[in-house]
Design a protein that fits this description.
With 255 residues, this protein is mostly beta strands. The chain is built from two helices and 14 strands; from the N terminus they run αββββββαββββββββ. The chain is globular, with a radius of gyration of 19 Å. The N and C termini lie far apart (38 Å).
């Protein structure tokens, strides 16, 4: 069994073990889990400053490795902060960083990688929990706006992004199972072409990720829901001389 320590989880995520390929359907736990980027609209009071990334309840997590991106010039990602699961459960490792955008991926305007681990070493005893009995926030995406003027019916998508099989994966607390995407759903249009089942993509792990060699199970049971921000013109009556006026509103118009 793979330990949940930092090195062991990374070995599982990077899929470098010489073991035989696993059968993802043999004895597999087929329960689906939803990982969702918040969608903000004009329904309730607040400001467009952060988007929460949440996971559905009762899923015991040992660590995760996510990539998130935007292709919009209306917003920029300025930071990603740990969410309630990380803070309240006293996870030992959380790192979020902007990563270089590869040549040929210049449709992106920002790309971030977030890695978190409940325990750096298997013998750790400081972690209080690895799950909640309700939907819980994994991280908060901090946004900045590039302009106070927004065109009619405009929106800015923030989405999960895959460059290889290790992206957007969750390791079980036991360390013997790696969950990958079953599908990725857009709620705000992403201006990215169909890649025909090849990387890079915002449509989820490609079919070949199931056959990689790991010492454990790979289960395609994660549903990724991409989100972002809506800018309805009747809500945003901003002028150049009134930047900072709190006329925005917050709410999820799609869930």
């Amino acid at each position: 069994m793979i330990r949940t320590g930092y090195i062991s989880v990374l070995i599982l995520i990077l899929a470098v073990s010489p073991a035989e390929p696993v059968d993802s359907t043999s004895g597999a736990d087929e329960s689906l889990q939803v990982v969702s980027i918040e969608r903000l609209g004009p329904d309730s009071a607040g400001s467009f400053d952060t988007l929460e990334v949440t996971i559905s309840p009762e899923y015991v997590i040992g660590g995760f490795d996510f990539k998130l991106a935007t292709d919009s010039r209306l917003i920029s990602i300025v930071d990603i902060l740990p969410g309630k699961l990380i803070d309240s459960c006293r996870w030992e490792y959380f790192n979020a960083r902007a990563v270089p955008i590869a040549p040929g991926e210049n449709r992106l305007t920002a790309l971030w990688q977030v890695v978190a681990l409940a325990e750096m070493f298997a013998a750790g005893d400081t972690v209080l929990c690895r799950q909640f009995d309700r939907e819980v926030c994994l991280m908060k995406i901090v946004l900045a706006f590039s302009s106070p003027r927004f065109s009619s019916d405009s929106a800015a998508a923030v989405f999960f992004y895959w460059e290889d099989c290790s992206d957007n994966t969750i390791a079980a607390a036991s360390g013997d199972t790696l969950s990958i995407s079953r599908e990725a759903v857009d709620f705000i249009e992403v201006n990215w072409p169909d890649t025909g089942g090849q990387f890079p993509t915002h449509r989820g792990a490609i079919p070949g990720c199931i056959g990689v060699k790991v010492t454990g199970r790979i289960l395609p049971r994660l549903i990724f829901q991409n989100g972002g921000v809506y800018f309805p013109p009747e809500t945003y009556q901003w002028q150049e001389d009134s930047v900072g006026t709190d006329t925005t509103a917050r709410g999820d118009t799609s869930r």
